From TrEMBL:
TM helices/strands, residue ranges: 144-166, 236-257, 327-349
Signal peptide: none
Cystine pairings recorded for this chain: 655-664
Transmembrane helix recorded as keyword: yes
Family matches, as CDD domains: EGF_CA
Organism phylogeny: Eukaryota, Sar, Stramenopiles, Ochrophyta, Bacillariophyta
InterPro entries recorded: EGF, Leu-rich_rpt, LRR_dom_sf, PGIP
Matches recorded under Gene3D superfamilies: Ribonuclease Inhibitor
Subcellular location(s) of the protein: Cell envelope
Entry protein name: EGF-like domain-containing protein
Region (Disordered): 1-22
Length: 1271
């Protein structure tokens, strides 16, 4: 107890006084100071002796054992915490020196504090960045997650950057380093290495924080009560990770830089990413992340903490010398610096030795600018005996003479890669160059423009890095094509030449082959001076060998091609050596064979368009193709065409489908015989042989139909049955047919003939005798069979026969339910005049119920073009003529707009048929941008014909928008041939037309804005769907008709609607449907003189910004006038007369500042006339008569524009205001039938325009006589 007393009351007591902030809950701000026992006992949280004893003893023990045993201290701290929680006195934790903040009311403590155990302490502050928030704040708080987001963003950016920098790296060059760099860049890199290391403060602070650990001073500070060792470690580990990633990215960027500018620019980018956490911290401090985060930043910025000199590292480390912890960050940074310097030296040495330069490349020159460059195509490898200008020299593989070379010339264009083939000096007579560049690797010039030594740009040059799949310089391509097509054939100006394939021997060209000799050679068997097909590196050419030298035979020529000097001779050959040349070849389409390429004649050397600077390799003439084919077939590599069969043993083809020639290449097109295999668009439908209109061959008239009406003629009956058919009906039964049933040309019109005969049965009792006499098939069941007769049909168009089908007797025992429908399709050209004739053999039958239904149907038409019924006794031969529409486009366009384009008896059919023969309409149709005009023309003509009750059209060539008046009572207004306005005066027309039919045709006018219809054509309800589809309508007027039903709410879908006028009809239902109040542009709404009811909805206020005219007069509207009418400040005319309105006139009507007309007469209104009407300065007409209004007449003398005032037939009292005399424009004044008194004001005599003035009648209390016209 003495120890207890001494701890509390002794001179070393450290308990703060309650008056210094403990009592009000601010213990964490209490300074370290000695207090008396009296103040201690006053603390409200320590009011009991037991509490003071328990708590003080724990504090004393922990303080004495703190530096002796961590495990004991932890145990006691746990007990202390439990006591605090139990007693609810956790704020007293700040009374302990090593758990207290060094921030007091009196300011920060000194750098050294002496506590009761004389432990020396130093002060420190947290780093002002987002990592400190991450370490200090609770997981669930906004500052913690804000800091975590910034840290995640920072580390992610650095990680993505590093992945991008080393993306695509190889094992030999894991950092994607350039081949080499200039000395100035190397010096800048050396200087940048230490900067990259020592500039990273986050790296150093991260190491220091990890090894020194969390100071004990945090344990008792309430502001940082969530600070835990694990959060400290996580925060400083993330700080270290960010610093390390920044340093690593900096190292990669600096060693990848090829210029000093790039190096500095890269450093700035890394510095920006590294500083994101500091930038975010500063932004958070001024409130960009919210108030909570701002307060957090301020707390961290101001906080200072005391730190024991013996604070030792991370919790849980068993042994760690204090000197190592103290200097760990220095050692770590030093070792990282040594590693970076070593890496830099290693990679710089590798670059200097050329380890990262491309050793072998493939080069493909084009021959468009320098035709001979193709012979230098192939693979180039780096020379092993030295460099030029510290860069590799590349030499063409497979050559020892005429060898192409790539090297760097520092004296050309301030340094440039060049191509040459003579000597070893790249600057001496180069053939082509890359332009100015400092790159050390020739591969990097692949994307640059190369130029000739005369300055012309090379149109094509590709430089590739050799990969594992490249066969460059090997015999793989030769081996792969060794057995492919041993014989080829050229077709030159009607002359064929055959060439045999030859391969180079194994010794030719050594182990490596250039691009030319890695391909086979084809030689003709012409004896001396044979022709040869060789690969020049860029193209295959057919050459006349006599222009390349003199050869005794093929063997001599082949021996020469194995010699490199043969290719050098190509540069010196005369300009006639090329007979044919192929399209260009590159590594993508190079298959090692001249087959599969397009061949051409060379362009004439005298052709002015031949702009190449060297004519030895003459460019191709694209207008003169040459045919090359492999004449020997192979099932796998060179199959026969068009399903032909290849006999591999002989290399010959067995052709099918009428094809012929070598490899079956010749198609049987245009021979007059329809070949269904070639009846395809790509073969122009067998060259037109399958259609009557396009067939031009000698055998066109022999085209037959194998299955007329779908019946197999070969199986329809034997000869005896045919004879029976002839005897019964008296006509032949020819087996031959004529027609083009395989015609598939989409540019022709398609039709179908349908025949539906009645079933006929043979019930003649003498049938067995007839069968016996005629020798008919005795096995055929004549009596139990059902017979269907398909008539003979003849089709002609423009006097040319298109189809002839025989009459057919189809018999079966399965036809007891009736005959099937027999169909035969055919095609005829658009614009043709056709005629169908069919026989009527049914007249020979002896049955009474036999008939035949015949139809002709167009493919786009749901209704038959012709429909005829032949019956017993009808001896005529039916013939049906018709004209096929001129345009396929018109036919297709109207296929879904009219039931039948051919039925001229209907309005739609008549209009469509008329337009189909109009050249102007066809132009509209074929130009898809004008097709809408065509449909509008269709709609206008159909409308006019509907109104007139006629099928006469306007005339195909008349422009419907060039006329202001198409007909009396029918007006249009257009813009760019599109109908915008349509007015119909229905009183002019006498036909009975339904409004639904009219509006249905309005769908043809998608841009229609104004629609006005009046008169008797308006009857029935307003069609809902038709009206709702006029999406661009701004004005709708349907007046003076007999419309009934309600106003469709679907009108509200017309969001562009501004004017609705439905006056003088028989409409019922609500006068203002609530749905219409959503029309934000509605300015005029007039429904006068109908049978509409309901009340005026208060939601009319929704139209206050747009409504200018509201006419509801002449209806059956009830209820009162809503005060919201006064919000319609844009209203100019308000007409409500002739209804059943009650209540008073709201004074808010005085807010209608632009009102010109206000008429509410003939209702049941009461009350007085509001004085607010004096505010209507623009008012011209005021009619309130026929109500029950009382009170006096308000002064209206200020309304100088008033012309008409009707207040009669009310209950008005008082005198007539003399101010009426000021209304100089007044022409009508009626005040009779009221309760007015006094006399007529003399001032009314001054109104010179006053024509009607009725006052005295019905006002019995008035005296005096007339004044002027007023009686």
């Amino acid at each position: 107890m003495d120890a207890f007393q001494g701890t509390i009351h002794g001179k070393n007591s450290i308990i703060p006084d309650a008056e210094d902030g403990l009592a009000d809950g601010n213990a964490r701000q209490a300074p370290l100071r000695r207090i008396s026992s009296e103040n201690w006992s006053k603390h409200p949280l320590l009011s009991s002796v037991n509490t003071k004893m328990t708590y003080t003893l724990l504090l004393d023990k922990i303080e004495r054992l703190e530096l002796e045993s961590d495990s004991k201290t932890k145990e006691l701290e746990k007990r202390l915490q439990e006591t605090e929680n139990k007693l609810g006195i956790s704020p007293l934790a700040s009374l302990i020196p090593w758990r207290s903040s060094s921030i007091t009311r009196d300011g920060p403590v000194d750098s050294t504090l002496i506590t009761n155990n004389n432990t020396k302490r130093s002060t420190f502050k947290l780093t002002p960045d987002m990592y400190s928030i991450l370490a200090c704040w609770e997981w669930s708080t906004k500052p913690f997650w804000a800091s975590l987001f910034v840290v995640f963003l920072q580390i992610t950016l650095l990680s993505v950057l590093i992945v991008d920098l080393i993306g695509g790296a190889t094992v030999d060059n894991i950092l994607n380093l350039p081949g080499n760099v200039e000395y100035t860049v190397r010096i800048a890199q050396a200087v940048a290495v230490p900067i990259a290391v020592f500039k990273q403060e986050d790296l150093r602070e991260g190491i220091e924080g990890i090894f020194l650990g969390m100071p004990h001073a945090f344990r008792g500070d309430i502001k940082f009560q969530s600070m835990k060792p694990i959060k400290w470690r996580i925060g400083y580990f993330l700080r270290f990770a960010q610093g390390f990633l920044s340093m690593f990215a900096s190292f990669i960027l600096l060693i990848q830089a090829e210029t000093v500018f790039d190096l500095l620019l890269n450093f700035l980018g890394i510095e920006f990413i590294s500083d994101l956490d500091n930038l975010a911290f500063r932004l958070a401090g001024i409130g960009y992340f919210g108030i909570t985060t701002r307060d957090c930043v301020n707390t961290i910025s101001e906080a200072e903490f005391s730190k024991d000199e013996k604070d030792t590292g991370v919790v849980g480390v068993a042994f760690s010398p204090s000197w190592f912890k103290k200097y760990a960050h220095i050692l770590g940074v030093f070792f990282i610096f040594i590693a970076m310097v070593s890496s830099f030296i290693f990679y710089a040495a590798q670059q200097y030795d050329g380890e990262y330069l491309t050793s072998t490349v493939r080069v493909e020159f084009g021959d468009e600018t320098l035709p001979f460059l193709g012979i230098f195509n192939g693979c180039y490898t780096a020379r092993s005996d030295g460099t030029i200008a510290e860069r590799l020299v590349y030499e063409q593989m497979g050559r020892s003479t005429m060898q192409g070379k790539l090297a760097y010339c520092s004296g050309l264009d301030d340094g440039s890669w060049v191509f040459f083939h003579e000597g070893d000096d790249p600057c001496n007579n180069p053939i082509a160059s890359s332009g100015s560049t400092k790159t050390f690797d020739v591969l990097e010039t692949a994307e640059s423009q190369w130029y000739t030594n005369t300055g012309l740009p090379l149109e094509y040059l590709q430089i590739y890095k050799i990969d594992e799949t490249d066969t460059c310089g090997s015999r793989d391509l030769l081996d792969a094509t060794r057995d492919t097509c041993l014989t080829i054939e050229f077709e030159l100006e009607g002359q064929s030449s055959t060439f045999q394939k030859h391969q180079l021997s194994a010794s030719d060209g050594g182990e490596a082959l250039d691009a030319m000799r890695s391909h086979p050679i084809y030689v003709s068997a012409n004896g001396s001076n044979p022709e040869v097909v060789i690969f020049t590196g860029r193209r295959w050419v057919l050459a006349n060998s006599s222009n390349l030298g003199s050869w005794e035979n093929t063997t001599a020529l082949l021996d020469a091609t194995g010699n490199e000097e043969f290719y050098s001779d190509l540069l010196e050959a005369n300009d006639e050596w090329i007979l044919s040349v192929s399209e260009p070849v590159d590594r993508v389409n190079d298959q090692g064979t001249p087959l599969g390429l397009q061949w051409y004649f060379p362009r004439d050397i005298n052709d002015e368009s031949n702009t190449t600077i060297d004519f030895n390799f003459r460019i191709s003439d694209l207008t003169r193709p040459v045919d090359l084919a492999c004449t020997s077939c192979n099932s796998k590599t060179n199959p026969c065409l068009y399903e032909g069969l290849c006999r591999d043993t002989t290399g010959e083809c067995e052709c099918k489908h009428g094809a012929s020639g070598k490899l079956c290449r010749e198609k049987p097109l245009g021979d007059g015989i329809c070949n269904t295999y070639f009846n395809t668009p790509e073969n122009e439908y067998d060259g037109g042989d399958c259609c009557a209109d396009t067939c031009e061959g000698v055998d066109c008239d022999d085209s037959s139909i194998d299955f007329p009406f779908g019946i197999d003629m070969s199986k329809r009956g034997n000869a005896s049955r045919a004879a029976w058919f002839e005897i019964v009906f008296g006509f032949d039964t020819p087996q031959n047919t004529f027609g083009y049933d395989e015609c598939r040309d989409p540019d022709q019109a398609s039709f179908t003939i349908e025949m539906k005969p009645s079933v006929w049965r043979f019930f003649d009792p003498e049938a067995p005798l007839i069968t016996s006499l005629l020798g008919l098939d005795a096995d055929f069941d004549w009596f139990n069979s059902f017979y269907c007769i398909v008539e003979k049909v003849l089709l002609t168009c423009d006097d040319k026969p298109y189809m002839e089908l025989p009459a057919i007797l189809d018999a079966s025992t399965d036809y007891d339910d009736g005959c099937p429908t027999y169909r035969q399709s055919f095609q005829v050209p658009y614009g043709a005049s056709c005629e169908v004739t069919y026989s009527n053999y049914m007249q020979f039958l002896r049955s009474e119920d036999i008939n035949l239904l015949v139809k002709v149907v167009h493919s786009f038409d749901e209704n038959p073009l012709y429909e005829g019924l032949s019956q017993l006794g009808d001896t005529s031969i039916p013939t049906f003529p018709w004209d096929v529409p001129l345009s396929k486009c018109i036919t297709e366009a109207f296929s879904n707009r009219t039931k039948s384009i051919f039925d001229k008896t209907t309005i739609e059919g008549a209009v469509a048929n008329s337009l189909s023969n109009s050249g102007r309409a066809i132009e509209w149709c074929e130009n898809k941008g004008d097709r809408g005009i065509l449909f509008e023309r269709f709609g206008l003509e159909a409308l006019l014909m509907l109104l007139l009750g006629s099928t006469e059209t306007i005339g195909g060539e008349v422009n419907h928008c060039s006329l202001q008046k198409l007909d009396e009572g029918f007006f249009t207004r257009c813009n760019d041939d599109r109908v915008l306005s349509l007015e119909i005066d229905g009183d002019y027309y006498t036909t009975n037309v339904m409004l639904a039919d009219l509006l249905g045709l309005m769908q043809s006018f998608p841009q229609l804005q104004y629609l006005g219809i009046n008169g008797t054509v308006l009857n029935g309800p307003i069609p809902v769907m038709e009206i709702a589809n006029l999406h661009n309508l701004t004005t709708l007027g349907l007046v003076n008709g007999r419309l009934n039903g309600t106003i469709p709410t679907e009108i509200s879908s017309l969001q562009k609607l501004e004017t609705v006028i439905l006056d003088n009809n028989e409409l019922t239902g609500p006068a203002i449907p609530s749905e219409l109040l959503s029309l934000e542009r509605l300015s005029t709404y007039a429904v006068s003189n109908n049978r509409l009811g309901g009340s005026i909805p208060v939601e009319i206020e929704n139209l206050k910004a747009s409504l200018q005219t509201l006419h509801l007069n002449g209806n059956e509207i009830t209820g009162t006038l809503p005060t919201v009418l006064g919000t319609l400040e844009e209203v100019v005319s308000l007409k409500l007369e002739g209804n059943q309105l009650t209540g008073t006139i709201p004074s808010t009507l005085g807010n209608l500042r632009f009102a010109l007309e206000l008429t509410i007469f003939d209702n049941r209104l009461t009350g007085s006339i509001p004085n607010s009407l004096q505010n209507l300065r623009f008012l011209s007409t005021l009619k309130l008569d026929g109500n029950e209004l009382g009170g006096t007449i308000p002064g209206l003398g200020m309304l100088e524009l008033l012309k008409i005032v009707h207040l009669d037939s009310n209950l008005l009292t008082g005198t007539i205001p003399s101010e009426f005399g000021n209304l100089s424009l007044l022409s009508e004044l009626t005040l009779f039938s009221n309760r007015l008194s006094s006399s007529i004001p003399s001032t009314l005599a001054n109104l010179t325009l006053l024509e009607v003035c009725n006052i005295l009648g019905g006002n019995s209390n008035m005296t005096g006589g007339t004044v002027g016209v007023c009686t």
